[in-house]
Each structure stands twice: as structure tokens, then as C-alpha cells.
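[SOLVED] Need 3D model of a two-part complex

Original post:
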Amino acid sequence: EPEVTQTPSHQVTQMGQEVILRCVPISNHLYFYWYRQILGQKVEFLVSFYNNEISEKSEIFDDQFSVERPDGSNFTLKIRSTKLEDSAMYFCASGGERNTEAFFGQGTRLTVV
Amino acid sequence: TQLLEQSPQFLSIQEGENLTVYCNSSSVFSSLQWYRQEPGEGPVLLVTVVTGGEVKKLKRLTFQFGDARKDSSLHITAAQPGDTGLYLCAGSYSGGSYIPTFGRGTSLIVHP
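Solution:
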């Protein structure tokens, strides 16, 4: 069964460092999302991406964040200068042509120390 | 910001019992999904409902979408320990682009 895959599963980084979280969405999907979940809190929307550009973003997705689809299969989230409060699970999701549901990856646990 | 409320927040029951969890909003959903999430993992899609009044069944799980498309319920019959997890609803609102907005979830524990 097709699935969204994310790498790495865990990432520990020093405060101020840049991190890139990687995702391979389901192959024929057109809509891509990043969400985050701080420990014990709700799943929060960061950004959606369609037709090679950001379609919507939340207040959380500030200038520190960027997304790319560099090669038609990977979808990346970059955090330029990590802060302690960026520690969270980051989930990538993708949606098909009907765009009425999203399928999530297993997540990357980011710990900023 | 649209608010999506889930209740109850926590539920602890014995194997074999039935339960219902709820998802409510003051706004109309264009579609609504139910997900199940286990600790340290991503949400797994269970079902999508789109039409008001729609009922979908997945083995012992019954999902209902309210007639006005503002609420939904998930009923589990004869719960089993394997049903333990966090049940999340996520909706997308009419008039906007499809961006799933999640509730806080219902944390279910089923004791053997």
C-alpha cells in the first residue's frame, strides 16, 4: 500500500543550527502538507503546497521555515535557525486529486538542545 | 481560526464495552476525517465523510456525519485493547481550501 515516508525518524540539533526534514509523498498525489505536534498538544498545520508553490501557511510558519519540492518526488521542510521551542514531531502529509483527505507519514521527532 | 472540539478528552473502559466519541464545530465542514494516532507515530486515516447524514462502518467502528455537517461521532462496539489510542477528527471548512484542522483528540484506553 502506498505510504508517505519521512526521514530521519529522529533528529537532535543544537539551537541555532539549520535542519532539513525530508518527505517522500505518495507518488501520484498533488497536495502536500507539513504539520507539527508538540509533545502532549494537538496536531498543528504549518503549510500546504500545490503546483510547486505554497498555497497556505499558518502563523507558525514564519521566515525561519521554508519548503521545497526539489526533484518531483521529495518534499522538504527547512528550519533555518532552530530554537528550543521548535522541538516537536513534524509530520508530512499528502493528498490526491480529490483533495478531501490527507495521508500522514510516521513523523520526524526533532529535538533542539 | 475555526475551532473543532472533541469530547470526551479521556476515556478509560473495559474490554467489551461500547463507546462514542464526538467532534463538533460551529462552522460547516466540507469534509471530515477520523484518524487514529499511537504514541510516537503519525495519524492513520480511518474514514472520510463528506455528505450530511452519512454513516460509514469499518468493522466495529461506526462513523456518522451530522445532517448539518457541523458534527460527527465515532461509535466503537465491543471495544478491544487493540482499539487503545488517540482518536482525532480533522475537518476542512466550506468556502476555503482543503486544510485539515485537527481537534485535540480523545485518548482511549481499553483495559483487558
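Edit: Chain A has a mean pLDDT of 94.
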